[in-house]
Amino acid sequence: VQLQASGGGLVQAGGSLRLSCAASGGTFSSYAMAWFRQAPGKERDFVAAISWRGNPIYLPDSMKGRFTISRDNAKNTMYLQMNSLKPEDTAVYYCAAGLTWPTIQPNDYAYWGQGTQVTVSS
Questions:
Q1: Which string of DSSP letters, residue by residue, matches 4-41?
Q2: pLDDT per residue over 98-119, tens digit each?
Q3: Fewer Cβ within 10 Å of end Cβ, the chain: N or C?
Q4: 91-98 and 116-121: which strand pairing?
């Protein structure tokens, strides 16, 4: 499956962005999906994951209340709604697909998008 992330950009602190991840070439609804992010000089961090049917989902406590993950299997697309953005959210955001659930480990996701840059100014 091929993944294409989009929706990144420059936003002021406190603002919102909605990332999208469009899938093609596979059966989207067969895959658990996730978002990761990587800031310069740092490791790739888990952001959120969503199961095949859209429920359950998993977000770390630090993301709860600000980020929401969702998917539309009819559109082969996953989303990440990010609100109340902070400068420390600045990173390249990657979408990923895998067959393991639940997992936050990057190695469990076999397919990756190219990443979309999110920059939050203070």
A1: EEE--EEEETT--EEEEEEEESS-GGGSEEEEEEE-TT
A2: 999 999 999 999 999 999 999 9
A3: C
A4: antiparallel
